[in-house]
Each structure stands twice: as C-alpha cells, then as structure tokens.
Amino acid sequence: MSEHTTRTLPPDGRSAAYARRMIEGALDEAGLVEFVDEALLLVTELVTNAVVHAGTDVDVDIETANGRLRVEVSDQSPGALPAVNRSPVETREGGRGLFLPEA
After folding, report:
1. What is the pLDDT of residues 68-90, one digit of tens each?
2. Which pTM was predicted?
3. Selection from 84, 22, 20, 16 nearest residue 50 by Cα
4. How far is CA 93 from its chain centroid?
C-alpha cells in the first residue's frame, strides 16, 4: 500500500519540528519505525538547511510504499544547487546539512 503526503512549510524555525512529526506519522502508519532515527536526522538537516540558506517556503514530500520511504525536500530558491561538503570539519557545528543525505 502506498501513502503520499506533501506539505509546504514556512521559512521559520518551527518547520523542522513539523517535518519531523510528518515523518514519524508516515513511518508509524506504514510500519517502518525501524527507519525513524535516520529519517528524523535527515529531514531535520534538509529542512533546516533550506530555511537557513534559502529563506523561502519549504516543500516536504513523503511517500511510503512497498516497505520503502522516500522523502523530498525542496525550497523556492532561484540559485544553483549548493555543493556537498565532502568532508565536514569535525570541530564545526554546522556544514553537514547536505553531507549526511549524500552519505
């Protein structure tokens, strides 16, 4: 069975928390709770990155089907796609937003 949810979130600090609740609900409903930790980390990083760097609305699209989870996060920034930092500096607090999903 396939489930699909899409929401547009505002560019503010509450959006990552709302996206986490969306992920938790989708995984719980699909019986995919074993993926919750990784999914929460990744959606938090992606939504926070979009809010901080694009400053636009953020679209979160979640689909569960056949024991799989697909999450797409996009912003409305007209700029080019950011480069992925291949090796984040361990002593920096930031700089991992796109490295984690790539990994």
Report:
1. 999 999 998 886 555 555 565 56
2. 0.78
3. 16
4. 18
